[in-house]
Amino acid sequence: MINKLKAEWAVFRDLPMQMKTLLQTNMVFAFVLPIVELFVGAYIMRNSDSPSLVIKYQMAVYTGIPFTFLINGFLLRYIDIRKLYSLGMLLSGISMYVMMQLKQLDGQGIALAGLIMGISYGLFWANRDFLALDTTNDSNRNYYYGVETFFYTICFIVVPMVVGAFLGSAKSLAWLGESINAGYQLVTVLVIILTVISSIIIHRVKFDNPKQKKFIYFRFENLWNRMLALSGLKGMVQGYLVTAPAILIMKLLGDESTLGGIQAISGIITAFILYWLGRNTAPKHRIYILSVGILIFLIGTLTNGILYSGIGVIVFVLCKVLFLPLHDIAYFPIQMKVIDVVSEKEKRSEFAYIFNHEFGLFIGRVAGLGLFIILEMYASEEVALRYALIVVAILQVLSIPLAKLIVSKSDKALDHE
């Protein structure tokens, strides 16, 4: 076992310095993501008991992301990509701080905090995606995303457990006073410290900004248009994966400690499966991984919709913990390979496709969360929580033949070069 660990460490140590530094930065920031994705929603639920307010917060986040991608594209002409990347990470803590300062959660305050978080995500993901594309190639991307997703999954186990237990004890023992919000404020301080550390790491190595300055285009070849359709389907499910677990758990099960405990049940096994997949699978296996992940997600949403109980929520969250990393480890390398192909063919900057891809995600996110809002307005909150997820999961099945076609076209394009 020790020899095996040493061998894996040797593989990591021998990675190119830029790729290794990017992974190290993202590994530290991975401790932040579960907090901003899970406990912000729980905080809003605790202080408002309003699922619609959680959805509105998420809509504000998703509105801020694509427009920040646009601004980031212009800023990259003048500012070092590392500084923009660092700013994105730091703003996640600032967004939480702004929300904690609100005396009363209302639409305006939630929108402000959500927009700041959207700007944070926009700067983080725009520059992260470009750096991942620039420092990897198709042959090592399974490994890169396997390691990254493995660490993200571990953090989504450990962090919710620890933070959930901390907030749960703060509430039950009242050792921070009568209000649990003091516990959230301490967690926010931790987030800010972690973002500072990750910002320091990314500055240890020099990275290149995109060389070609133009990045706004309106016409693309059919292969990229298909990729945009796939991104729209991915976007539909993204909003729910952030908001639904917190809403369902706080609504049907209890408190923040439950939120952390449920995340941990299946996560450890998932993490090691992901690392194994990253080390041992080839590009040809990506469609199989994607298909298994989508099937698991469909099972989880059907169980939640049929039972709509504590057991249904547990099954759904367990399936979500399995689905998300399986989907990502297949999706991101497919996306990067398509960018490799079309950017070479159309002689455009890779960032042009990263920027355009975000608007595909945005349309999907608005459609998915819009479905929830419509069902809540014209049916009921329970109908929205039970059935919107099922509709989104069924639509995800369309991703499988679409992704298969995209991979086939990408391979043929590379063979013709």
Characteristics of this structure?
globular; 15 helices; mainly alpha; 417 residues; single chain; Growth Hormone, Chain: A
Number of helices: 15
* CATH architecture field: Up-down Bundle
Q: Overall pLDDT, averaged?
A: 84
- The total tally of domains equals 1
Cα gyration radius (Å): 21 Å
Number of strands: 0
Could you give me the name of the CATH homologous superfamily? MFS general substrate transporter like domains
Order of helices and strands: HHHHHHHHHHHHHHH
Q: What oligomeric arrangement do these chains adopt?
A: single chain
Q: CATH topology, anyone?
A: Growth Hormone, Chain: A
Tell the overall outline.
globular
Transmembrane segments: 21-45, 57-77, 84-102, 108-126, 147-170, 182-202, 223-248, 260-278, 287-307, 313-332, 353-375, 387-407
InterPro entries: MFS, MFS_trans_sf
Organism: Aureibacter tunicatorum
Protein name: YQGE family putative transporter
